[in-house]
Design brief:
By secondary structure, the chain is an alpha/beta fold. The chain has helices spanning 2-16, 27-39, 65-79, 94-107, 121-131, 169-175, 184-200, 222-228, 236-246, 253-265, 292-303, and strands spanning 20-24, 45-49, 112-117, 141-145, 151-152, 158-159, 180-181, 204-209, 212-216, 234-235, 269-273, 282-286.
């Protein structure tokens, strides 16, 4: 009798542990998710990272090798002089990542995939790119989208995170309850959103709310750099960091540094040093603006 009473408990415990695959879109999400899995075995599973940031750059022709390679070369150009090195571009292929992911689903009918998506254009654009490749797995793909959902920070205060890695691991355990199967309607509509973004092929894509992505020109973020550039010389790295910290709609540092260099080429920012080398090798300021030292020097010359 004692043994019989224990059997349902064992079965229930085993049934609660699913064969999961977690899909994320940002490297920093991995650490918080791994910590959460250590705290809750029902979350245990492989973590798959989609590395490209489809919220910026060209999208045309990505279904063909030529179009994909053109995007790789575009990234390689942006990475010149960066701390990451140009070898990062082409060091991974998200197409192969998804191919291997699909093979795992095909090989094991019990596997279930959770897509973790923060309220930001990076994750949502990655989601749209992914969805068009998963239509045959309806019922086995779930999404967890932090769309205007409050969580608690370290001080116990409510806040609205925009990325998965903004959440404390213990809050991830609560967030898992938000997972839901992707609906048939979403499988039909969301791939069309990716098609629209490809046709528009804007240089930048931003999240306007929900899952609504709007295409913008590649110079969309330039105003943020110009707003934070002053009349005095400052290190390019400092301007980059200040701008990234202050801007409300976020994007990556590689893209923003490329835009900073473009503003120098266009004459909107002045620079001293070699902008084609290390990010730390040049200073910038607003073009045509005299800094404090130059103003004092000019005033001294006039008085003489």
């Amino acid at each position: 009798m004692k043994i019989e009473n224990q059997i349902p408990e064992v079965i229930q415990k085993e049934a609660s542990v699913k064969d999961l695959i977690h899909i994320i879109f940002q490297e920093a999400d991995k650490a918080v998710l791994n910590t959460a899995m250590e705290m809750d075995e029902t979350l245990m599973g492989e973590v798959i990272l989609i590395r490209d940031d489809f919220a910026v750059g060209p999208l045309s022709g990505l279904d063909e090798d030529e179009g994909w390679q053109q995007r790789v070369e575009w990234w390689r150009g942006l990475l010149e002089g960066s701390p990451y090195g140009t070898q990062l571009a082409g060091s991974f292929d998200d197409r192969n990542t998804i191919k291997e992911f699909r093979e795992k689903l095909d090989a094991n009918a019990d596997k279930e995939a959770w897509i973790w998506m923060g309220q930001n254009q990076h994750d949502v654009c990655g989601y749209f790119w992914l969805m068009r490749q998963l239509s045959s797995y309806q019922g086995r793909i779930l999404v967890l989208y932090l769309n205007n959902l409050p969580f608690l920070n370290e001080k116990g205060q409510l806040y609205y995170p925009s990325t998965i890695h903004d959440i404390l691991p213990k809050e991830i355990l609560k967030a898992k309850k938000l997972s839901r199967p992707i609906t048939l309607s979403e499988f039909e509509v969301d791939p069309d959103e990716w098609k629209r973004l490809v046709e528009e092929n804007g240089g930048v894509r931003i999240l306007e709310g929900g899952k609504k992505i709007a295409s913008e020109n590649e110079y969309y973020y330039d105003k943020e750099l110009l707003k934070n550039a002053g009349t005095e010389w400052q290190k390019a790295g400092r301007l980059l960091t200040n701008t990234l910290n202050r801007m409300k709609i976020k994007t990556g540092d590689v893209y923003m540094m490329w835009r900073m260099k473009t503003l120098v080429y266009n004459g909107q920012l002045a620079a001293i040093g070699d902008i084609n080398k290390n990010w730390k090798d040049f200073d910038v300021k607003l073009a045509g603006a005299l800094d404090k030292t130059e103003t004092e020097s000019s005033a001294s010359e006039e008085s003489n």
